[in-house]
Every structure is written in structure tokens, then in C-alpha cells.
């Protein structure tokens, strides 16, 4: 925890503060329902949200509140039912070119090596083999997996697998890094190390990502990592219940009444 508590101090050293940054992602009146056996299941009920350059935004809420759905809409992986999602002012039509995603369960292909898994995103973008190999090696080095290029996922610990997940996302140099509960499959210490390292890397500017959207149901994680916390409620369907600026007028104490009321 002590490593993580350094973050709020480091944040003030960022060149671009959240409030001043360019709007990278924006939703206006975003709704989403899924088609189910008994008709439409409404999941998001009108979300207005901005993600600006320089900020880490946590999407916090109970299971089923629509956090993953919102993240996927922002990434253009699922289409909105109504309303708009835009990246740098342009409405999305398909996958968001400015984002890359890190998943809770790592989503690595078990029959591919670390190197091959990391190269996947670049292949889709039409990179040639030598450039792919070099970019992947750099990303693998960045996440501390130098020397594991030829290993298969099953030979790695959970923490190392998620490092591969980070390398695969970062290799495409996303403008906005999207993370869906990236630490929740890891043990507490591994999660803490990985969080701390990621934030240090980001704040040191060693990869060019300008904003991070983190989905979590862990209040402590949201408080420690984010500049802004967006709380999604799920009744009757997902809407923004509240937003907090971290380290400003918002209590950092997870036991504060305001927090507990919001999460219930
Ligand atoms: P969270 O990430 O906050 O747990 P989700 O966005 O995963 O929430 O899910 C919100 C609701 O939408 C849940 O009721 C879930 O069952 C439903 N849902 C999610 N994905 C789909 C899908 N692809 N098809 C149908 N229903 C879905
Ligand atoms: Mg989810």
C-alpha cells in the first residue's frame, strides 16, 4: 500500500492536468440494451461522460452495473443502442482506433508465445514482420518480461500473464488505455506491484498513452489509481450516480459515509 500511496504526489508532477486536457473520449446520451430471450435487457440508461488527456478515470460500480459494457462501448467493441460515442470529436463507427484493452482474464492465446501474443495487435494493423518483432520486443521489455519472449502463457504466473496483456495493449501505443478489472484475478501483492509499476511507467512517459480508463469494483483501487471516479448505479439500469475528483474535495477514506452510501 505504501508504494501506491505515492501516486497522488506523483500525479501533481504530470505535465498535463486532467482538467486542462483535450477531450479524448465522449459519450452523449449513451444507452445500451442487449437482445435477450424475453426481449431487450436495458443495461446503460443514458451516460454522458468525458475522458480527457492526462487523467486516469475509474469506472466503479457493483457487478452488473454495466461497467464492462460502458468500457466496450467506449472502445467501439459493441455498438451503442442510442446516443453517441466519439473519439477526439469524431463519432465512432466500429472499433475505436485510439484505444487498446487489457482484460481481467488476460485473454492470451495459449498456443502462441509471449512474443506472438504481443505481435497480434500489430498484425491486425498491417505491420511488417521485422517491425512487429522489434516493437513487440520493446513492449515486452517495458513490462519487465525481457527474456520470456519464447515462453508460452501456461509457463507464466498470473502476474506475468497480465504483463503480457499490458504489453499487447501498449505495443499499439493507444491514446487511451482501457482496463477491465485488470488486477482482480491476481493475488493482492502481485496486483499491488503491477499497479504501482504501471502508474510509474505511465507517469514517467515511457509510453505515449494520454489517458487511462480503469473498470473496477474495488474502491481502494479506484482511490489509489484514479484522478476521477465515476460511480455507476444499476437501478433501474446503469447510469452515472456520482463522480469524484480524487485528492480534491473528496474523502480518501474508503470508510467515509459518502462512499458507502454510493456503493450501496
Ligand atoms: P459489470 O461489468 O458492471 O459487471 P456488465 O456490463 O458486464 O456489468 O453487464 C451488465 C448487464 O448486462 C448484466 O446484467 C449482464 O448480464 C448483461 N450483459 C453483459 N453482456 C451481455 C451480452 N453480451 N449479452 C447479453 N447480456 C449481457
Ligand atoms: Mg465487468
From TrEMBL:
Residues 25-259 form the ABC transporter domain. Keywords: ATP-binding, Nucleotide-binding, Transport. It comes from the Bacteria. GO terms for molecular function: ATP binding; ATP hydrolysis activity. This is NitT/TauT family transport system ATP-binding protein. The chain holds residues 3 to 266 of 469 of the full protein.
Amino acid at each position: 500500500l505504501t508504494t501506491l500511496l505515492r501516486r497522488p504526489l506523483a500525479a501533481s508532477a504530470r505535465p498535463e492536468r486532467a482538467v486542462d486536457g483535450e477531450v479524448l473520449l465522449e459519450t452523449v446520451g449513451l444507452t445500451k440494451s442487449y437482445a435477450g430471450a424475453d426481449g431487450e435487457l436495458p443495461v446503460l440508461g443514458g451516460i454522458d461522460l468525458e475522458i480527457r488527456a492526462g487523467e486516469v478515470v475509474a469506472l466503479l460500480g457493483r457487478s452488473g452495473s454495466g461497467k464492462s459494457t460502458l468500457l466496450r462501448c467506449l472502445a467501439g467493441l459493441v455498438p451503442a443502442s442510442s446516443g453517441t460515442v466519439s473519439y477526439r470529436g469524431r463519432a465512432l463507427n466500429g472499433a475505436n482506433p485510439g484505444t487498446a484493452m487489457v482484460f481481467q482474464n488476460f485473454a492470451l492465446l495459449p498456443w502462441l508465445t509471449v512474443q506472438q501474443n504481443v505481435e497480434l495487435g500489430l498484425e491486425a494493423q498491417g505491420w511488417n514482420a521485422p517491425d512487429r518483432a522489434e516493437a513487440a520486443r520493446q513492449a515486452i521489455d517495458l513490462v519487465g518480461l525481457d527474456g520470456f519472449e519464447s515462453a508460452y502463457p501456461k509457463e507464466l504466473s498470473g502476474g506475468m500473464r497480465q504483463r503480457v496483456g499490458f504489453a499487447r495493449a501498449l505495443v499499439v501505443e493507444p491514446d487511451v488505455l482501457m482496463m477491465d478489472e485488470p488486477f482482480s484475478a491476481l493475488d493482492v501483492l502481485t496486483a499491488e506491484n503491477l499497479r504501482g509499476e504501471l502508474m510509474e511507467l505511465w507517469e514517467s512517459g515511457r509510453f505515449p498513452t494520454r489517458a487511462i480508463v480503469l473498470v473496477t469494483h474495488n474502491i481502494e483501487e479506484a482511490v489509489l489509481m484514479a484522478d476521477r471516479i465515476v460511480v455507476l448505479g444499476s437501478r433501474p439500469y446503469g447510469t452515472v450516480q456520482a463522480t469524484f475528483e480524487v485528492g480534491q474535495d473528496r474523502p480518501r477514506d474508503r470508510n467515509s459515509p459518502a462512499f458507502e452510501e454510493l456503493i450501496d
